Pre-rRNA-processing protein IPI3 (Dekkera bruxellensis), 488 residues
Amino acid sequence: MDEVAFYCSKGSDADKKHLSTFGYLSSTHSPKQYLQYRQCYCDRNGAVLTGVGQETKLITACYKKALIQVYLYGKEAPEQRIPIPEPLTCIQIIDHPTIASSSRNSSENWLLVGGSSTGRLYVWELSSGLLLAVKECHYQSMTVIKQCNNYIVTGGADSRVTVWKITDLISDHIVRSQPYAVFSNHTLPVTDIVVSAGLDDDAIIYSSSEDSTIRCYSLVSKQLLTTFVLPQKVTSLASDPSFRALYAGLQNGTIRVINLYKADPSSHVLEAVGGLGKVITLKPDLNNDESIACIQSESADKNKSKEENAITKTIVNIDGTTIICGDMSGYVFIVDIRTKQIQRKLKTLSGPVSQILLFNAMCDDKKLTRDVKDKRIIRNIPILKRVVVDSEIIGKHEITKRLGHLESTAERFDVDEFINTVQSQQKCFENTGKSEIISISGSNTSTATKLGETAELKKQLEQMGASFSTLKSKYEELYKEYATIANK
């Protein structure tokens, strides 16, 4: 099992053509580097991957340009350059909720959602390129977009967090939709959002902001549950896979660990932290007891300002043992959470780290090879429309879809063969002989008889003990007489 990390940056201001700006796809457990993408640059949260392997694609929203670049796996140069209505600051791929919930290991890339610098929310269908909706979501630029099952959660520089129902957005051409919820408790721009896994009834939204707070909201009740106040500006946010802790990237280049459960001193039972609108203030961690210092000497330059040492992106691996973080200087580190030691340093980027994505893959997976020989692979995505679709066009709903998989038929699961194998194995455990019930005579002895026999046995045992004591005393007397005679 291997974990593959994709990371890229905004690029350098000195390199206007971004000739020295690359995005990399590297292994987190070995020095192996799978791919590099040329002229790959985007704003924070402005790049997404449809997966890792053959036929998968990388989609990036170019920084400060009304342009989207599409890379095919195995190719360094962009396969497509698609113009869009305005520059996008963040994008996110939305998986189909029905397909994702019915199959644990498979999902279908359904929608491409983008947030612009003017606060608009764009929703495209990836299979057709149709622009389904454009919503005035924020008053200022949008900073982050996340999916929560059947909902889309967005954060912006206007300090607001908005929640939209996906069904309302894709039906916007029929009925004009409104946000499901709007949270305006922050006072400065929202920097990152984390949504808990699970059902919608238990979903919790964690949002971080430059006002040095992390706020927890309930998706169902639409209420503020907990507020964490930190000593520094929170520039990025990540969570444990089991949501036992939050990892807040701070402006000073450290990651603050916030435990969401603690043991009760009297009962020693784990209890959730916060709730009911409670405000928890975290004191400065001068000894780094609850912090991870993930900057090295070359990135922690004393001449640099605090903003240049800030952690821009954080992500935790699948087992919650390591955290991958990137900073404003373009450094990307893999840090062990328990020991708080830097395990590896990935290739340095030219400019602030803008995106880090993590995927799981088998070490010997043939899909990770760069040589693509399958001619049936769809190399492009449909051109993204710049005008909202009307009811007549969406009624036709013509999409581009590739039927089938790259796997050979020999690797597929054969149900009939599995049933026959189980039947043959079951015969080994079958008992083909006959069993008879044999009754033993005298087995129904009454309890009183058993008690009498027990008392008699105890009496015999006591008599035998007394006889043994008598014999022992006589033996000792005879031994003394023998010793006396032998000494004479």
About this structure: The chain has five helices and 31 strands. The helical segments are 97-102, 166-170, 391-396, 415-427, 447-487. Residues 447-487 form the longest helix (41 residues). The domain at 2-406 is CATH 2.130.10.10 (Methylamine Dehydrogenase; Chain H).
